[in-house]
Amino acid sequence: MTKQRILVAGGAGFIGSHVCDALISSGRSVICLDDLSTGTIENIRHLLANPRFEFVEGDVTSPRRIDCDTILNFACAASPVTYQKDPIHTLRVNFEGTRHLLDLAKTNKALFIQASTSEVYGDPEVHPQVEPYRGSVNTTGPRSCYDEGKRVAEALCHAYAETAGVEVKIVRIFNTYGPRMSIHDGRVIPEFIVNALTGNALRVNGTGEQTRSFCYISDMVAGILATMEAPTAFRGPVNIGNPSEMSIVSLATAIVALTGSRSPIEFSKALTDDPARRCPDIGLAISRLNWAGPLVGLKDGLQRTIEHFSMTLSSSSWDMSF
Ligand code: UDP
Fold first, then answer.
1. Largest CA distance in the chain
2. pTM (two decimals)
3. For the NAD-dependent epimerase/dehydratase domain, which residue ranges apply (predicted)?
4. CA of 36 to the centre of ligand 1 (A)
5. Per residue in 159-200, pLDDT tens?
6. 172: Cβ below 6 Å to ligand 1?
7. Can you say whether the dihedral through the CA atoms of 118, 119, 123, 126 is positive or negative?
């Protein structure tokens, strides 16, 4: 049965706001909870007048009562640059925040969908990454606040499902990109596009031979909604992403070509614990979910994203001094 009143924590963020759009388009009511730390009102402004949409400004580390029958939890900064700024807060958002939302799901008898991440696999020894692989994560490195935070959030979901009867589903999101990413985001695609468009150097960390597999936002949203709509017995975790893998240096070259930029590509020191390879095995998602898989290719997706950043940069409101 279709759930009707959906709480989207982190709903003003990049992925969260696109999920809010899709839920509103499909006739649901949405309560968007966001502390606007990385999300923005701009991402949801077009929804504010909709009677089926409500915005609540707040942080998930405080408990709150919200009437809903489904909860999607996207609340957490996702860019390494951002989540490393305040690692204790990142851990609190993932532990305390997820716990409060799971308590709310228990009280409301709501379905709970956790936005987990490919980062639970750390710097993986298994390639491509399959869900049963348990990962290779440094507990005391610069990424540990996010990686271990997301891992404990999965453990919380599992514990609430086993002991408190909460219906949970866990989706492991791989690198996603598209319109509404911030020019200050810090992740590789926004960083490269903004620098290419402004004539600055694209800075590749390390050799650039490390790989990622980039999924366009509309394909990701379709996968998340398919997870939400999967039969009750399907708890996951399930990988959602695009298995088309590429090196970071070839991404830089592609973005320079697509923007027609004269920006140089420069190399700097490798980051500590930067995963060498990442690629989702999406076999489980394809076989168990009503999801078509990725439909938008990299060139098409990058062109749409370049358009978004060109518009943002040419509008008067942007400020690179942030
Ligand atoms: N990266 C880079 N230059 C940048 C930003 C990122 O070379 O300006 C690299 C980064 O070191 C990593 C990859 O691009 O190998 C993806 O980084 P991102 O921050 O997008 O996310 P991650 O997948 O590491 O969480």
1. 58
2. 0.96
3. 6-241
4. 23
5. 999 999 999 999 999 999 999 999 999 999 999 999 999 999
6. no
7. negative
